[in-house]
Amino acid sequence: MNIDKIKHDYNINGVTVIRNAIDAHWIKEMQTAIDTILDNPGLASIEYTPNQNKGRYYGDFFLWMRNKSFKDFAFNSNLPQLAGKILDSNNINFFYDQLLVKEPNTKEPTPWHHDLPYWPLNGNDILSFWVGFDTVTKNTGAVKYIKGSHKWGKFYAPASFSKKTGYDDIYKRMGLDPVPDINSNIDNYNILSWDLEPGDITIHHPLVLHGSSGNFSTNIRRRGLALRYIGDDVTWDDRPGTFISNEKFKNILPQLNFKKGESLNSALFPKIWTC
Ligand SMILES: O=C(O)CCC(=O)C(=O)O
């Protein structure tokens, strides 16, 4: 693994891929863990696919708090150290994990968005790994990224992944410009996307625009997990309209009580790596 090249590509493009980054034993353990979660949805989980549609787009958050395999993977795999090296941080805290499963025949896309506006955070030392636990292709909803968009100097309003989740109203409180209509002008954008085998990962910057199509396969699943890590310069930001304003998050994070400018270092966002 060439860390300098990974850092270079991540910094220039806002996203990069690493092949064979995850050991096979994690893949097996996590496939089982994900299926357990799918059978036992959590308090903050969201079914993005409307009842009348085929397929299933399932979202869930902070899995590490209720499943030992998710916690082990997030804390004890090679990912925290990799985050530290890419971000050049002395310490890495875990922000949260987010499950994004698109079963076969799911037509719901993930809208174009960038992540930071959803989060009560300030800082640059933040990254997400996207780990696929199936073979992921364009047809099954491989995530697409707009090359270099993390350097546009934009902070777009969060886009709601589904109309029925209650987020639409929350996100409007921010008064930000919406993400432009990228799909109607797709030729104007430089899109990066990779087919992935289990074990491959992508790494993306919190301001790079990204989204995905549905899973149009009739038999191949798309089980994806995004893991968000934060480094040295990250502090709490209490601006209104971030995802924690949703009642669902109050169910799973009742103890949230940070003030603007505070470090997140705590039992909720634990320090899991030091250089
Ligand atoms: O899995 C997807 O479709 C979108 C992933 C995403 O938005 C993220 O990893 O931040």
Short key terms for the protein model shown above:
275 residues, alpha+beta, Jelly Rolls, eight-stranded antiparallel beta sheet, 6 helices, 21% helix, binds 2-oxoglutaric acid
What does this structure look like?
Helix content is 21%, strand content 23%. The strands form 3 sheets. Strands 1, 2, 3, 4, 7, 10, 12 and 14 form an 8-stranded antiparallel sheet that branches. Strands 5-11-8-9 form a 4-stranded antiparallel sheet, with no helix packed on it. It has a two-stranded antiparallel sheet with strand order 6-13. The model has no long low-confidence stretch (mean pLDDT 95). With 275 residues, it is α+β, with helices and mostly antiparallel strands. It has helices at residues 3-13, 24-39, 68-76, 79-87, 167-172, 247-252; strands at residues 15-18, 46-47, 57-61, 91-102, 110-113, 121-122, 126-132, 144-146, 191-193, 201-204, 210-212, 222-230, 235-236, 271-274. It has 6 helices and 14 strands. The protein has one domain (3-253): Jelly Rolls (Sandwich), CATH 2.60.120.620. The protein is globular, with a radius of gyration of 17 Å. Bound molecules: 2-oxoglutaric acid. The site of 2-oxoglutaric acid (AKG) has 11 residues, from strand 7, strand 11 and strand 12. 2-oxoglutaric acid binds at residues 100, 110, 115, 128, 130, 141, 143, 210, 212, 224, 226.
Topology:
Elements: H1 3-13, E1 15-18, H2 24-39, E2 46-47, E3 57-61, H3 68-76, H4 79-87, E4 91-102, E5 110-113, E6 121-122, E7 126-132, E8 144-146, H5 167-172, E9 191-193, E10 201-204, E11 210-212, E12 222-230, E13 235-236, H6 247-252, E14 271-274
Antiparallel strand pairs: 1-10, 2-3, 3-4, 4-12, 4-14, 5-11, 6-13, 7-10, 7-12, 8-9, 8-11
Helix pairs in contact: 1-4
Bound molecules: 2-oxoglutaric acid.
